[in-house]
């Protein structure tokens, strides 16, 4: 009988880094997590527009996205009821395990995610509330239900930036309403709603992200 773990894992060989291992000592880390059906190279395109101090690591989600998508997924795309909680937590725990495996420990860890990756940002903060300095959620949402870390987040109120477009027709209205209710009670919330923007990131959003990260540093 095989004893190989079936739990999802982050492929360390697929991580895109902005700095070599020798240049990561004594620096904060910013972890990027892409959306459903995308890949680790997607959000890494933001790197030249972000502050230089943090080392950036862009992760590949652990699941192959379903056909006909040619990319990767953090969890199965859900309905308006939301994704499967266990599946989301397994992927969050995979990211935490990857962080634990790093040979150079960052001085702090920030999170940035788009769509499903944005949901991962909040789920990671809920799984390990004291581990992450801040979160950036772009066109993302909080998953339904309660997590053990929610009480601690309600007390510590870590900084979170939430950006979304008024023309986003991908994220269910129920997920937006759930996130609108949850974030003010569990974070120090800032962000912006971008008029006319669909399910994406615009130049104003990139500038806002940069300013938010600079304030955390």
Automatic annotation (TrEMBL):
<keyword id="KW-0378">Hydrolase</keyword>
<protein>
    <submittedName>
        <fullName>Phospholipase/carboxylesterase</fullName>
    </submittedName>
</protein>
<comment type="similarity">
    <text>Belongs to the AB hydrolase superfamily. AB hydrolase 2 family.</text>
</comment>
<dbReference type="InterPro" id="IPR029058">
    <property type="entry name" value="AB_hydrolase_fold"/>
</dbReference>
<dbReference type="InterPro" id="IPR050565">
    <property type="entry name" value="LYPA1-2/EST-like"/>
</dbReference>
<dbReference type="InterPro" id="IPR003140">
    <property type="entry name" value="PLipase/COase/thioEstase"/>
</dbReference>
<dbReference type="GO" id="GO:0016787">
    <property type="term" value="F:hydrolase activity"/>
</dbReference>
<dbReference type="Pfam" id="PF02230">
    <property type="entry name" value="Abhydrolase_2"/>
</dbReference>
<feature type="domain" description="Phospholipase/carboxylesterase/thioesterase">
    <location>
        <begin position="22"/>
        <end position="214"/>
    </location>
</feature>
């Amino acid at each position: 009988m095989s004893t190989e773990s079936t739990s999802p894992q982050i492929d360390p060989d697929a991580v895109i880094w902005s700095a070599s291992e020798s240049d990561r000592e004594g620096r904060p880390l910013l972890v990027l997590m892409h959306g459903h059906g995308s890949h680790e190279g997607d959000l890494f395109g933001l790197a030249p527009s972000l502050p230089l101090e943090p080392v950036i690591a862009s992760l590949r989600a652990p699941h192959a996205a379903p056909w006909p998508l040619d990319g990767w997924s953090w969890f199965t795309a859900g309905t308006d009821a939301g994704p499967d909680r266990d599946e989301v937590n397994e992927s969050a725990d995979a990211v935490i395990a990857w962080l634990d495996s790093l040979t150079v420990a960052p001085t702090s860890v920030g999170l940035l995610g788009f769509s499903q990756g944005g949901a991962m940002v909040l789920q990671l903060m809920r799984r390990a509330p004291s581990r992450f300095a801040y979160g950036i959620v772009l066109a993302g949402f909080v998953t339904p239900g309660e997590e053990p870390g929610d009480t601690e987040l309600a007390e510590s109120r870590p900084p979170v930036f939430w950006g979304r477009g008024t023309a986003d027709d991908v994220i269910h209205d129920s997920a937006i309403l759930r996130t609108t209710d949850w974030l003010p009670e569990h974070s120090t919330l800032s962000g912006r709603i971008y008029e006319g923007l669909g399910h994406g990131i615009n130049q104003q959003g990139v500038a806002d992200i940069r300013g938010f990260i600079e304030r955390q540093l």
